[in-house]
Amino acid sequence: MPKSKLLYLLMLIVSIVFIIYVLYINFIYDPQAAEFLSRKTNLKRSVNIPAWLTVMKVHVVLACLAMVSGAVNFSHRIQRKYRKFHRINGYVYLISVIAVVITSGYMAPYSTGGKVNSIAFNLLNIIWPIVTITAIVKIKKKQVNNHRKWMVRSYAFCFTNMAIHMITSVFNNGFGIAYSTSYTIGVYGSILLLPLLAEAVFRFKSRVP
Ligand code: HEM
């Protein structure tokens, strides 16, 4: 199997496993997000829990939709054979991204770890749609390679939640650093690492058939 196909398969597996995990945790295992909410200390504003939970669940479902629609659209087969589907699905991805950042905008002021993380999430709320819209502008100008590159950059942000929790867990469980500090490292670490991961994908793809 060509290495680029293997990379796509790996991304599909990681995305599917993560989607199942996120849906299980947030809708079955801990639907009240009791564990996550218990980590919120020293917040300047008090959280309206029912409203926060509703927004968070909409956020999770649309984030999963963004992950699925994005993953499907990277398939070369779909790009070549089902162009109309690729286009419609691309707009499904764009709308999902917009919905994720709008819901994120509601939750950002109540971020675990406080203002420092609210700022980071709001920064992402601006960057992610810009990157995604840039990808669409590129294809409108018929720049296929640039479209692909900007979509990879956009899709990398779908792994924000996974990256935050992985980094937080390493610093909190691995190094014994306080949860909110580890979470802050997780948020900023993800914003730095995910774009680098996208660049690593381009380098890998330019070296393999
Ligand atoms: C696309 C994949 C994503 C998934 C599956 C996802 C999922 C979640 C989940 C389950 C939560 C609840 C808390 C937790 O368990 O972490 C959450 C919170 C949050 N997400 Fe996302 N998210 C994604 C992407 C993003 C992106 C790209 C942003 C920013 C643009 C974002 C912003 C937020 C914010 C601000 C919160 C509240 C954090 C807090 O209260 O500390 N998420 N997300």
From TrEMBL:
The chain crosses the membrane at residues 7-29, 49-68, 88-107, 119-139, 151-171, 177-197. It holds the Pfam family DUF2306. The keyword Membrane applies. Keywords: Membrane, Transmembrane, Transmembrane helix. The keyword Transmembrane applies. This is DUF2306 domain-containing protein.
